[in-house]
Design brief:
This protein has 327 residues and is of the alpha/beta class. It folds into 2 domains: 2-183, Peroxisomal Thiolase, Chain A, domain 1; 188-322, 3-Layer(aba) Sandwich (Peroxisomal Thiolase, Chain A, domain 1). The protein is 31% helix and 26% strand. A 5-stranded mixed β-sheet has the order 1-7-6-4-5, with helices on both faces. The two termini are 14 Å apart. The mean pLDDT is 95. It binds coenzyme A (COA). The site of coenzyme A has 21 residues, from helix 2 and helix 6. Coenzyme A is lined by residues 29, 33, 37-38, 126, 164-166, 168, 203, 213, 215-216, 218-219, 222, 252-253, 256, 280, 311.
């Protein structure tokens, strides 16, 4: 039997930092209101009113595209794992902000990285990375040896900067992990993926228009879906919430993260939170949090981590993952 484990990881963020004070130049708001309602202090932007208007078109030309962020995170994660891009069987790029309608953003990313195998995008909005983790593990179960999994977003390209009810929430970035085949069960112990398509009107962006969101309703659904999905994953993994060393939720709003953790019985010191300096980066939010936890020494071999996210669609996804199974 073959399972999957994570052998390398990395993050990429565009250089422009946008503060809550910057938001006050766009609409009536305050640093105090944004911090209290969301926990966000700064976010990174690849485009929008605070970034010099020089959108690079080539993936290696800068951080103005989803592919460029994905390429940077993917390259560093492969180096960290010591894996040659030519030996990667599949690039799975999770994004809800693709660079073009056609083709998938993973195509340009694959070329920039020199990936030897296939490439595809997954769009499950903010639940994307965990959908991708389960998919990548399945590909390894089917016989692949190495999969590069990336969550990358340029949400600032889909932001309606005139809408004060949600423009302050979103940021850009990318996080990547390398998954490799290992003998035995591997690291994925339990998972749950789902969608309720009747909730599409709660959060969407049409071509050419910015994001539209019913914030308070999304908030309620988010807490409900995160808790229900995480509970299902814990049950499938046959572990209790007390066994979880770190909870890595989708970074949408600190109040959603805290409410979900509290209902799951996870103490606040076990929550990984990067939202104060990233904002909501959709598919990139869980890998950005995971990378920061790993790099700050919060993850030890054998630790059980619980990933849980929800997003437009509405999608949800969670997984119980054992950290640090070596090759
Ligand atoms: C967006 C969100 C932070 C708003 O917080 P909230 O506590 O629900 O706030 P409300 O929308 O009820 O608005 C409260 C008041 O603040 C006002 N307000 C809205 N945006 C504001 C802003 N940027 N600055 C100041 N006041 C603002 C509203 O107009 C409202 O005023 P009123 O009471 O006079 O009508 C919150 O609903 C949320 O995080 N929802 C989930 C969003 C999310 O996670 N989306 C991504 C899913 S992947």
């Amino acid at each position: 039997m073959t399972g999957a484990t994570i052998t390398g990881w990395a993050a990429a963020l565009p250089p422009t930092v946008v503060t809550n004070e910057d938001m006050t130049t766009l609409f009536e708001t305050s640093d105090e209101w944004i911090v209290e309602r969301s926990g966000i202090r700064t976010r990174r932007a690849a485009s929008g009113p605070f970034v010099d208007p020089q959108p690079p078109t080539h993936p290696e030309g800068g951080f103005g595209t989803t592919a460029s962020l994905a390429t940077e995170a993917g390259r560093k994660a492969l180096q960290h794992a010591g894996v040659d891009p030519a030996d990667v069987d599949m690039l799975v790029l999770c994004t809800t902000t693709p660079d073009q309608l056609i083709p998938a953003t993973s195509s340009a990313t694959s070329a920039a990285l020199g990936i030897g195998g296939g490439a595809m995008d997954i769009n499950a909005a903010c639940a994307g990375f965990t959908y991708g983790l389960v998919t990548a593990t399945g590909l390894i179960g089917a016989g692949m040896r190495r999969v590069l999994l990336v969550g990358a977003e340029t949400l600032t390209r889909a932001t309606n900067w005139a809408d004060r009810t949600n423009a302050f929430l979103f940021g850009d970035g990318a996080g990547a992990v390398v998954l490799e085949a290992v003998p035995g069960d591997g690291s994925l112990l339990g998972w749950d993926l789902g969608v309720d398509g009747t909730l599409v009107p709660l959060l969407y962006a049409d071509h050419g228009s910015g994001m539209a969101m019913r914030g308070p309703e999304v908030f309620r659904q988010a807490v409900r879906a995160t808790v229900a999905s995480a509970t299902a994953s814990l049950e499938r993994a046959k572990v209790a919430s007390e066994d979880i060393a770190l909870f890595v939720p989708h970074q949408a709003n600190i109040r959603i993260m805290d409410a979900a953790a509290s209902r799951l019985g996870i103490p606040s010191d076990r929550i990984v939170s990067v939202i104060d300096h990233t904002g909501n980066t959709s598919s990139a939010s869980i890998p950005l949090a995971l990378v920061e936890a790993a790099e700050s020494g919060r993850l030890r071999a054998g630790d059980l981590i619980l990933l849980a996210g929800f997003g437009a669609g509405m999608t949800w996804a969670s997984a119980v993952w054992r950290w640090g199974n070596s090759r």
